[in-house]
Every structure is written in structure tokens, then in C-alpha cells.
């Protein structure tokens, strides 16, 4: 659970997350999970926020059982696939979830 202050502070990023989720046609559950993952560990550096946002969307889609590919999420978020690949497992672990062991 995140404070209203967090949601207000990062509102522009959360709006971007919604736009990405719209492009990927994600469910409310996947979006909610992505928001929670993003707000759990927002980086200080603005340059890193977009990559963490994309990784959060990717991980949220997995948790919700809607598994979009890293490439599809990267295209929708305008980041490299490697940006997602290098971050999504850590996001899940930070949130207390166990990433799949593929």
C-alpha cells in the first residue's frame, strides 16, 4: 500500500504507466500491480524512472497472468528490451515476490 503523497508526487509517471498499459491492453489487475511495483522502488534519477516504469509494467503483466513480451512492453514504453530484462526480477524481489525461474 502506498501513500496518497507518493501517488501525487509521481502522478506524471503513473499517467505514463496508464498510457503504456492502454497500448498493451492490460487489465486493471495488471495495471494495479505495475503501479504497486513502480511505487515500491522509484529511482531518484529521472533517467532511470522510465526503465523502471517499463519493467514494472512487464512484471505486472506477468503477475496478472497476462504475460506480455519484454519486446512488446519495451516498444510501448519507448525503452530498450535490455532495460526491462535487467530490472524486472529485482522489482519483484523488492516487492517480496519470487520471480519465475525460467
Topology diagram in text:
Blueprint (H helix, E strand, L loop, with lengths): L3 H6 L1 H14 L3 H13 L5 H18 L6 H8 L3 H5 L2 H7 L8
General description of the model:
The protein is mainly alpha-helical and 102 residues long. It has a single domain, classed as Cyclin-like (Cyclin A, domain 1). The chain is built from seven helices and no strands. It has helices spanning 4-9, 11-24, 28-40, 46-63, 70-77, 81-85, 88-94. α2 packs across α5, α3 packs across α4 and α4 (46-63) crosses α5. It is globular, with a radius of gyration of 12 Å. It starts with a helix and ends in an 8-residue tail after the last helix. The model has no long low-confidence stretch (mean pLDDT 90).
Main traits of this protein?
single chain; 102 residues; mainly alpha; Cyclin A, domain 1; 70% helix; globular
In a nutshell, what does this entry contain?
It is built from 7 helices and no strands. It has 102 residues and is mostly helical.
What portion of the residues fall into strands of 2 or more residues? under 5%
Please identify the top-level CATH class. Answer: Mainly Alpha
Helix tally equals: 7
Task: Examine the coordinates and then state which fold CATH places here, giving the name of the CATH topology.
Answer: Cyclin A, domain 1
- Domains counted in the coordinates: how many? 1
Amino acid at each position: 500500500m502506498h501513500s496518497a503523497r507518493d501517488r501525487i508526487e509521481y502522478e506524471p509517471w503513473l499517467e505514463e504507466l496508464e498510457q503504456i498499459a492502454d497500448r498493451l491492453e492490460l487489465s486493471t489487475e495488471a495495471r494495479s500491480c505495475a503501479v504497486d511495483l513502480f511505487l515500491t522502488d522509484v529511482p531518484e534519477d529521472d533517467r532511470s524512472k522510465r526503465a523502471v516504469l517499463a519493467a514494472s509494467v512487464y512484471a505486472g503483466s506477468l503477475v496478472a497472468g497476462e504475460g506480455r513480451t519484454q519486446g512488446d512492453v519495451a516498444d510501448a514504453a519507448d525503452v530498450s528490451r535490455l532495460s526491462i530484462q535487467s530490472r524486472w526480477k529485482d522489482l519483484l524481489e523488492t516487492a517480496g515476490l519470487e520471480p519465475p525461474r525460467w
